[in-house]
Amino acid sequence: MQEILLDEFLKATIKEDLGRGDLFARILKEDKEVKSKIIAKEDGVFSGEIYIKRMCELYCIEAEFLVFDKEEFQKGTTLLNLRGKRSTLLSLERSILNILAHSSGIATLTRRFVKKLQNTDCVLLDTRKTRPLLRVFEKYSTKNGGARNHRLGLDDCLMLKDTHIKGEQSLEDFIKEAREKIPFGVKIEVECETLEQARAVLTAKGDILMCDNMPLELIKEVVDLRDKISPSTLIEVSGNVELENIANYAIKGVNAISSGYIIHHATWIDLSMKML
């Protein structure tokens, strides 16, 4: 099933660029087998291996990877070598570079965030702030950077945000009722902005309590309250988390820090294909 989804993504990507056919193929006198290489023009973390490996299988290109998913590389590094028909390599050049540059850009920024959390008990989580139809691809990229995937969609974890709980008389009762209606084993996460909300979530034994845009001192109070009322509840910190301040939130008792920044602020890695 996963391979089918991957194939559909790759074929749609290539179709978008090829349109009715690469015009270069019309003027090519002889379609010889040639070699090329992908070179990094800046430092980064490699991501996109499974996508390019499958693309090469689909279009009869031999690929020799010299750098693999999750590995760091430096400017000037040859990331992979390719061998195939000249027309095929040139038709796929931009699609290959776009996938690698986009994915590696996200993995590279994510790795910088992860390094800020070294020697702490916190893990970095991604979010649902992804580009339309690119969620699987972009979350794959954050994972290669060292983040943990969190909530692929609305069906794998019930998150109650301020918009969900607005108008509810009792947050504690609302959580308990939700527990009876969702599938067994599905986690309930609740976004909290105040200590009162946090107390209600903890009393109802919510699985994950998100401290949303809370000042550090209030987060510490929530952690202390969690330890007293519901030690099994996980604490997640979220809201305006950036590279410069993420380490401030990695205090004892906070289990995870989530950030959409690692995706929507990532810039592409500069890569180039050279014919040999």
UniProtKB/TrEMBL annotation:
Family: Belongs to the NadC/ModD family.
EC number: 2.4.2.19
KW DNA damage (keyword) present: no
Pathway membership: Cofactor biosynthesis; NAD(+) biosynthesis; nicotinate D-ribonucleotide from quinolinate: step 1/1
A GO cellular component annotation in the UniProt record: cytoplasm
MF-aspect GO terms: nicotinate-nucleotide diphosphorylase (carboxylating) activity
Quinolinate phosphoribosyl transferase C-terminal domain ranges (all copies): 106-274
Biological role stated in the UniProt entry: Involved in the catabolism of quinolinic acid (QA).
Domain of life from the UniProt record: Bacteria
GO biological process: NAD+ biosynthetic process; quinolinate catabolic process
Residue ranges occupied by any Quinolinate phosphoribosyl transferase N-terminal domain in the UniProt entry: 24-104
Protein name per UniProt: nicotinate-nucleotide diphosphorylase (carboxylating)
Keywords: Glycosyltransferase, Pyridine nucleotide biosynthesis, Transferase
A Pfam family this chain is assigned to: QRPTase_N
Top-rank EC class of the record's enzyme: transferase
Keyword Transferase included in the entry's annotation: yes
